[in-house]
């Protein structure tokens, strides 16, 4: 089991110092083992790459993806990869050297690398795709498959200097139907609200007056934009999210921003890692007509 392990120190300049060290560990005790898992431990979460069958290229893409996600989450581009001797390294060199430091200046020191992280992600390359799973307090909450192509696309549209996806820029020509993005400060807050009940309760709700499954125009969708009758479009699919309103961890107010609109960009601005369809499958009422 290989652990790429970030541990953290604070230097004199109060900079967060994540040490990414490819040593051979058994999780939580420093013993040698076989190549199995690449773990990346940061402040808020632990990322594990199950890379028994992964090529170097796949490992590189996954690491890139995690670092991008971390930049996005921390709203920073200030992550530096350095060698033991403080020389700047590329990610490729890091993988080859199997020893690298990650610097994230200006982030508060809150990590205890041994403590149980609330959020854990695992990545497993399988048949040309990556199976990404999310666990919250040990319980699996999401499972998504991402292709390498999708990741490469995301990486190329990721604006390294602002931590924002370039493709998320509002297009004013279509802005009437596309829910507008929110300022970065708002995204950084990431407040969760108290929801009515769990996903199970939402799934079990009786569904009445469900419209027929068909293709809808943007205009038709836009009429369903009031509390008690809310539709939205996510990745070309139309959902009646009236019932979901009370179960959205980000709250009703945020969800209403996508009411009667295409919320895909807004959705990705806040949580591109969430598999929206998995949550809303029951309220999938059709596709958007182009
Ligand atoms: C329409 C489909 C949507 C679904 C199925 C959905 C689902 C979710 C889920 C599952 C979470 C918890 C995420 C986690 O624990 O990592 C979440 C959180 C959140 N969502 Fe949404 N969401 C939707 C739309 C939106 C939109 C349009 C916004 C726009 C402003 C938004 C804003 C938020 C915020 C602020 C949080 C809390 C912070 C966070 O967990 O990052 N969501 N949503």
UniProtKB/TrEMBL annotation:
Keywords: Heme, Iron, Metal-binding. One of its GO terms (molecular function) is metal ion binding. GO terms for cellular component: cytoplasm. Residues 213-289 form the Cytochrome b5 heme-binding domain. Belongs to the cytochrome b5 family. This is Cytochrome b5 heme-binding domain-containing protein. It comes from Paramecium pentaurelia.
